[in-house]
Amino acid sequence: MDSSQLLKGVLDMAVLATLTAEDGYGYDVVRRLRDAGLDDIGDASVYGTLRRLFAAGALSSYVVPSEEGPHRKYYGVTDAGRAMLKSQRDDWHAFASTISHLLSAQEAAR
What are φ and ψ of residue 78, in 5° steps? Predict the structure, then answer.
């Protein structure tokens, strides 16, 4: 199965979940998603998702000076983002339960 198609559908949720644990800047979010097992995640996909979630009010941002290079733009989850994540989490659990049920029924029919 092509997991990239699945990832597109849940990238907002994955980014929000990652940032709920701790604020982070773009590449930090990419690294944390990859460390969690999303090895094929593209940098551009994550940066685009961060911009879109910020524009939607789900994320706040602030700049932190860096002595090792350019300033970093950090993102944090807003109350609206937490509500969005809760809704997406509920949807995910319902969807995953339905698919698991269908797969179990198919296995039992064998």
Answer: -85, 175
